[in-house]
Design brief:
With 170 residues, the chain is of the alpha+beta class. Helix content is 18%, strand content 31%. It has one domain: Nucleoside Triphosphate Pyrophosphohydrolase (Alpha-Beta Complex), CATH 3.90.79. The longest helix has 13 residues. It is an enzyme of class 3 (hydrolase). It comes from Bradyrhizobium ivorense.
């Protein structure tokens, strides 16, 4: 039963540019229980925390692995949040099949580099590319662009980080 499975420790990244928009990437394939749905392929970068890794180290590693960006300053972070994966009927050997969902700490970072630093297609640390496109988006719009099982967390992130976006997450 999925409720007996643990949550996967994870970090989420709200990378803000100078205009207060966040970086989102378009997932181009499913990854086990991390499905994508037509029209809802966009998300902010996120990734697992390695055993013994500090979440603040994980956030910078994941930012680099998924986007190539390294020029970012810490702005703030949320408390831990969780979401459940949708039902998964794939191989039990998939790396995410042992988890019921993700337990995430989200970080707000200010991007201090140039847009040409962002390159989500180049694999890094032996990790395959997850995004085939990226763009800057208003934080208060991102929850409408993600798969439904992530929306509640994205709305909470938007409310927590509204001050960095210069918007109200009503």
């Amino acid at each position: 039963m999925s409720s007996e499975k643990p949550y996967r420790p994870n970090v989420g990244i709200a990378l803000f540019n100078a205009e207060g928009r966040v970086l989102i990437g378009r997932r181009f394939k499913d990854d086990g229980p991390e499905i994508i749905l037509p029209g809802l392929e966009w998300q902010m970068p996120q990734g697992g925390i390695d055993a013994g890794e500090d979440p603040r180290q994980a956030v910078m590693r994941e930012l680099w692995e998924e986007t190539g960006a390294v020029s970012a300053d810490y702005l703030g972070e949320t408390t831990w949040m969780t979401y459940e994966f949708p039902p998964y009927h794939g191989p039990a050997t998939h790396r995410l099949a042992e988890f019921r969902g993700q337990r995430q700490k989200w970080f707000a970072l200010r991007f201090t580099g140039r847009d040409d630093e962002i390159d989500p297609l180049t694999p890094r640390n032996g990790q395959p590319a997850e995004f085939d496109q990226w763009r800057w988006e208003r934080l208060d719009r991102v929850a409408d662009l993600v798969v439904p099982f992530r929306r509640e967390v994205y709305r909470a992130v938007a409310a927590s980080f509204a001050e960095f976006a210069g918007t109200s997450a009503a």
